[in-house]
Amino acid sequence: MYILKNVPTFLLLNLVIIFGANGCSNSPETTINTATSESILPLTPKIEVESFSDWVILYDAQTHTSMDAWTGFNQEEIPEKWEIIDGLLTISKEGNAVDKNTGFGQSIVSKELFDNFELEVHYRMSEGANSGIMYHVTQASDYKDDYETGPEYQLLDNQLAPSESLPHRQVASLYDMYAPQISPYLPAGQWNLAGIRVLNNEVEHWLNEELVLQYNLKSDDFLQRKIESKWYDDPDWAMAGIGHISLQDHGDKVEFKRVAVRRIK
Questions:
Q1: Annotated domain spans of the chain
Q2: Which of 12, 81, 87, 230 is 20 to 30 A from 39, alpha carbon to alpha carbon?
Q3: What is the mean pLDDT of the segment spanning 34-56?
Q4: In the CATH scheme, what is the code of domain 93-248?
Protein backbone atom coordinates (compact mmCIF):
# COMPACT_ATOMS: atom_id res chain seq x y z
CA MET A 1 0.00 0.00 0.00
CA TYR A 2 1.41 3.35 -1.04
CA ILE A 3 1.11 5.72 1.93
CA LEU A 4 3.51 8.62 1.41
CA LYS A 5 1.92 11.46 -0.53
CA ASN A 6 2.94 14.64 -2.30
CA VAL A 7 2.87 17.65 -0.07
CA PRO A 8 1.52 21.23 -0.45
CA THR A 9 3.47 24.39 0.34
CA PHE A 10 4.49 24.72 3.96
CA LEU A 11 5.72 27.54 6.15
CA LEU A 12 8.71 26.91 8.38
CA LEU A 13 7.68 26.52 11.99
CA ASN A 14 9.42 28.69 14.56
CA LEU A 15 12.04 26.64 16.36
CA VAL A 16 13.51 27.40 19.75
CA ILE A 17 17.20 26.56 19.93
CA ILE A 18 18.54 25.55 23.31
CA PHE A 19 22.22 24.70 23.36
CA GLY A 20 24.00 22.09 25.44
CA ALA A 21 21.93 19.00 24.54
CA ASN A 22 23.38 15.51 24.52
CA GLY A 23 23.60 13.51 21.33
CA CYS A 24 22.66 10.03 20.17
CA SER A 25 26.19 8.69 20.12
CA ASN A 26 29.31 8.71 22.25
CA SER A 27 31.12 10.97 19.78
CA PRO A 28 32.48 14.31 21.04
CA GLU A 29 29.98 17.14 21.33
CA THR A 30 30.26 19.73 18.56
CA THR A 31 28.35 22.81 17.50
CA ILE A 32 26.83 23.07 14.04
CA ASN A 33 25.78 26.49 12.77
CA THR A 34 24.43 25.64 9.33
CA ALA A 35 21.90 23.07 10.55
CA THR A 36 19.63 25.60 12.20
CA SER A 37 19.33 27.96 9.22
CA GLU A 38 17.22 25.86 6.85
CA SER A 39 15.61 27.38 3.77
CA ILE A 40 11.96 28.36 4.06
CA LEU A 41 11.32 27.41 0.44
CA PRO A 42 8.47 24.91 0.02
CA LEU A 43 9.50 21.28 -0.39
CA THR A 44 8.66 19.39 -3.56
CA PRO A 45 9.35 15.66 -3.81
CA LYS A 46 12.33 14.91 -6.03
CA ILE A 47 12.00 11.14 -5.84
CA GLU A 48 9.18 9.70 -7.90
CA VAL A 49 8.32 6.14 -6.93
CA GLU A 50 7.15 4.82 -10.30
CA SER A 51 8.94 1.51 -10.73
CA PHE A 52 9.43 -0.60 -7.66
CA SER A 53 9.28 -4.14 -6.30
CA ASP A 54 6.67 -5.33 -3.84
CA TRP A 55 6.94 -4.33 -0.22
CA VAL A 56 9.41 -6.29 1.90
CA ILE A 57 7.72 -6.66 5.28
CA LEU A 58 10.30 -6.48 8.04
CA TYR A 59 7.63 -6.48 10.73
CA ASP A 60 3.84 -6.18 10.78
CA ALA A 61 1.58 -6.52 13.80
CA GLN A 62 -1.13 -8.15 11.69
CA THR A 63 0.71 -10.23 9.11
CA HIS A 64 4.34 -10.75 10.18
CA THR A 65 4.75 -10.89 13.96
CA SER A 66 8.25 -12.34 13.87
CA MET A 67 11.74 -10.89 14.09
CA ASP A 68 13.07 -13.31 11.48
CA ALA A 69 13.94 -10.42 9.15
CA TRP A 70 16.35 -8.97 11.74
CA THR A 71 19.54 -9.70 13.61
CA GLY A 72 21.37 -7.81 16.30
CA PHE A 73 24.02 -5.41 15.02
CA ASN A 74 27.22 -7.42 14.48
CA GLN A 75 25.61 -10.54 15.96
CA GLU A 76 23.37 -13.37 14.90
CA GLU A 77 20.98 -13.21 17.86
CA ILE A 78 18.34 -10.59 18.68
CA PRO A 79 19.43 -8.49 21.71
CA GLU A 80 17.44 -9.34 24.82
CA LYS A 81 15.76 -5.95 25.23
CA TRP A 82 13.92 -6.42 21.92
CA GLU A 83 10.61 -8.23 22.44
CA ILE A 84 7.23 -8.77 20.83
CA ILE A 85 4.59 -7.65 23.33
CA ASP A 86 0.88 -7.75 22.48
CA GLY A 87 1.83 -8.07 18.83
CA LEU A 88 4.09 -5.00 18.82
CA LEU A 89 7.84 -4.98 18.25
CA THR A 90 9.01 -3.36 21.48
CA ILE A 91 12.35 -2.08 22.73
CA SER A 92 13.33 -1.35 26.35
CA LYS A 93 9.90 -1.95 27.88
CA GLU A 94 11.15 -0.79 31.30
CA GLY A 95 12.14 2.65 29.95
CA ASN A 96 8.55 3.76 29.78
CA ALA A 97 8.70 7.18 31.49
CA VAL A 98 10.71 10.39 31.26
CA ASP A 99 12.72 9.51 34.36
CA LYS A 100 13.27 5.86 33.38
CA ASN A 101 15.97 4.73 30.95
CA THR A 102 17.41 1.23 30.57
CA GLY A 103 20.74 2.38 29.15
CA PHE A 104 22.04 2.54 25.60
CA GLY A 105 21.79 -0.92 23.99
CA GLN A 106 22.19 -2.80 20.73
CA SER A 107 20.27 -1.98 17.58
CA ILE A 108 18.60 -4.56 15.37
CA VAL A 109 19.41 -4.51 11.66
CA SER A 110 17.65 -5.92 8.62
CA LYS A 111 19.19 -9.06 7.20
CA GLU A 112 18.73 -7.69 3.69
CA LEU A 113 20.70 -4.81 2.20
CA PHE A 114 19.06 -1.82 0.50
CA ASP A 115 20.49 0.97 -1.66
CA ASN A 116 17.63 2.88 -3.35
CA PHE A 117 14.44 2.36 -1.39
CA GLU A 118 11.30 3.71 0.22
CA LEU A 119 10.78 2.85 3.89
CA GLU A 120 7.82 3.30 6.19
CA VAL A 121 7.95 2.81 9.95
CA HIS A 122 4.85 3.02 12.14
CA TYR A 123 6.04 3.74 15.66
CA ARG A 124 4.86 4.97 19.07
CA MET A 125 7.10 6.69 21.64
CA SER A 126 6.82 6.57 25.39
CA GLU A 127 7.09 9.88 27.25
CA GLY A 128 10.50 11.48 26.74
CA ALA A 129 11.69 8.64 24.50
CA ASN A 130 14.61 8.78 22.11
CA SER A 131 15.40 6.34 19.30
CA GLY A 132 16.30 6.36 15.62
CA ILE A 133 16.20 4.69 12.23
CA MET A 134 19.51 4.20 10.44
CA TYR A 135 20.03 3.23 6.80
CA HIS A 136 23.02 2.16 4.67
CA VAL A 137 24.44 0.57 7.82
CA THR A 138 27.60 -1.55 7.51
CA GLN A 139 28.23 -4.50 9.79
CA ALA A 140 31.89 -5.28 10.46
CA SER A 141 34.21 -5.81 13.40
CA ASP A 142 35.65 -2.34 12.77
CA TYR A 143 32.39 -0.76 13.94
CA LYS A 144 30.99 -0.85 17.45
CA ASP A 145 27.59 0.66 16.61
CA ASP A 146 25.35 1.20 13.61
CA TYR A 147 25.54 5.00 13.84
CA GLU A 148 29.23 4.89 12.88
CA THR A 149 28.21 4.24 9.27
CA GLY A 150 24.46 4.81 8.94
CA PRO A 151 22.74 8.21 8.71
CA GLU A 152 19.98 8.52 11.32
CA TYR A 153 16.36 9.58 10.97
CA GLN A 154 15.76 10.78 14.51
CA LEU A 155 12.82 9.42 16.51
CA LEU A 156 12.04 11.56 19.54
CA ASP A 157 9.33 12.80 21.85
CA ASN A 158 10.12 16.46 21.18
CA GLN A 159 7.97 17.69 24.02
CA LEU A 160 9.46 15.72 26.89
CA ALA A 161 12.80 14.26 25.82
CA PRO A 162 15.33 15.52 28.39
CA SER A 163 18.44 15.27 26.24
CA GLU A 164 17.61 16.79 22.83
CA SER A 165 16.41 20.32 22.11
CA LEU A 166 18.40 21.47 19.08
CA PRO A 167 16.29 21.43 15.88
CA HIS A 168 18.76 19.22 13.98
CA ARG A 169 18.44 16.57 16.71
CA GLN A 170 14.66 16.42 16.95
CA VAL A 171 12.12 14.13 15.35
CA ALA A 172 12.51 13.57 11.58
CA SER A 173 15.87 15.36 11.48
CA LEU A 174 18.94 13.81 9.92
CA TYR A 175 20.51 13.57 13.34
CA ASP A 176 23.06 16.32 14.05
CA MET A 177 23.00 17.41 10.40
CA TYR A 178 19.69 18.77 9.11
CA ALA A 179 16.56 19.98 10.89
CA PRO A 180 13.15 19.21 9.36
CA GLN A 181 11.48 22.24 7.82
CA ILE A 182 8.19 21.34 9.52
CA SER A 183 7.37 18.94 12.35
CA PRO A 184 3.91 17.37 12.06
CA TYR A 185 4.61 14.77 14.72
CA LEU A 186 2.13 13.44 17.24
CA PRO A 187 3.14 13.34 20.93
CA ALA A 188 4.04 10.36 23.08
CA GLY A 189 1.42 7.63 23.16
CA GLN A 190 0.17 8.27 19.62
CA TRP A 191 1.18 6.46 16.44
CA ASN A 192 3.40 8.25 13.94
CA LEU A 193 4.44 7.25 10.44
CA ALA A 194 8.09 7.88 9.54
CA GLY A 195 9.15 7.63 5.91
CA ILE A 196 12.51 7.66 4.15
CA ARG A 197 13.14 7.70 0.40
CA VAL A 198 16.62 7.26 -1.05
CA LEU A 199 17.46 7.39 -4.75
CA ASN A 200 20.96 7.97 -6.13
CA ASN A 201 22.10 10.03 -3.10
CA GLU A 202 18.93 12.14 -3.00
CA VAL A 203 17.15 11.58 0.32
CA GLU A 204 13.73 12.62 1.57
CA HIS A 205 12.38 12.40 5.12
CA TRP A 206 8.62 12.12 5.54
CA LEU A 207 6.54 12.33 8.71
CA ASN A 208 2.84 11.54 8.89
CA GLU A 209 2.51 11.74 5.09
CA GLU A 210 4.23 15.12 4.82
CA LEU A 211 7.61 15.80 3.24
CA VAL A 212 9.72 17.48 5.92
CA LEU A 213 13.36 17.31 4.77
CA GLN A 214 15.52 16.85 1.67
CA TYR A 215 19.29 16.49 1.31
CA ASN A 216 21.93 14.97 -0.96
CA LEU A 217 24.50 12.60 0.52
CA LYS A 218 27.24 13.79 -1.84
CA SER A 219 26.56 17.53 -1.90
CA ASP A 220 29.12 20.10 -0.75
CA ASP A 221 26.63 21.28 1.86
CA PHE A 222 26.27 17.76 3.26
CA LEU A 223 30.02 17.24 3.46
CA GLN A 224 30.52 20.60 5.19
CA ARG A 225 27.86 19.81 7.76
CA LYS A 226 29.51 16.47 8.43
CA ILE A 227 32.76 18.26 9.27
CA GLU A 228 30.84 20.40 11.78
CA SER A 229 28.88 17.47 13.25
CA LYS A 230 29.47 14.56 15.60
CA TRP A 231 30.47 12.46 12.61
CA TYR A 232 33.56 14.53 11.75
CA ASP A 233 35.90 11.73 12.85
CA ASP A 234 33.86 8.84 11.39
CA PRO A 235 35.27 8.60 7.84
CA ASP A 236 32.87 5.83 6.76
CA TRP A 237 29.71 7.55 8.00
CA ALA A 238 27.12 7.97 5.19
CA MET A 239 29.60 6.74 2.59
CA ALA A 240 28.47 3.16 1.84
CA GLY A 241 25.58 3.82 -0.56
CA ILE A 242 24.06 0.48 0.41
CA GLY A 243 23.51 -1.34 3.67
CA HIS A 244 21.18 -2.53 6.38
CA ILE A 245 18.24 -0.68 7.90
CA SER A 246 18.47 -0.50 11.69
CA LEU A 247 16.26 0.40 14.64
CA GLN A 248 18.04 1.86 17.65
CA ASP A 249 17.86 0.97 21.32
CA HIS A 250 18.47 4.25 23.15
CA GLY A 251 17.22 2.86 26.46
CA ASP A 252 13.65 4.20 26.14
CA LYS A 253 10.49 2.26 25.37
CA VAL A 254 9.42 2.48 21.73
CA GLU A 255 6.87 0.30 19.94
CA PHE A 256 6.69 -0.56 16.24
CA LYS A 257 3.63 -2.01 14.54
CA ARG A 258 4.82 -1.98 10.91
CA VAL A 259 8.23 -1.70 9.25
CA ALA A 260 8.17 -2.16 5.48
CA VAL A 261 10.52 -1.31 2.64
CA ARG A 262 10.47 -1.51 -1.14
CA ARG A 263 13.29 -1.07 -3.57
CA ILE A 264 13.20 1.82 -6.04
CA LYS A 265 14.60 0.87 -9.43
A1: 93-248
A2: 230
A3: 73
A4: 2.60.120.560
